[in-house]
Amino acid sequence: MGIIKAVCTSPEKGMRKKDTGEGILIKEHGLQDDAHAGPWHRQVSLLALESIEKMRAKGLDVGPGDFAENFTTEGINLVDLPLGTRLKIGGGAVGEVTQIGKECHNRCAIFYQAGDCVMPREGIFIKVLEGGPVKTGDTIEVMEVPQ
Asked: Which of 77, 81, 101, 141 is a Cys-bridge partner for 1, taking CB atoms 3.0 to 4.6 Å apart?
């Protein structure tokens, strides 16, 4: 089980997200008021605080939302979750892992500052199966792992 350390949104794609501390997950859509929400397989992005710490160790002043992730987590090994894993988020929202990592077509500002970026390797994406409120401090736990 892990903890949500930040809930982040942005009004446009291609920019860092701001930690709003809370949000609403909408079934088959994503995080309310986020530019990446919509009817596709990458509705919500997650990145572990442990991954952000790797970039801080390289000397970057980065934090939650700087990698354009919606949820910054702690204590759950995101990249080892198989596709199809179902996650309980907060009190009742449910997401399903649809993608692990991503291809960066354009190098982001983080890559140019550090020569590396963790989101393409260590970020994951989910689609929302059941909506509900979510806030910093909520738990995120594995419900079901596909066999």
From this structure: 141
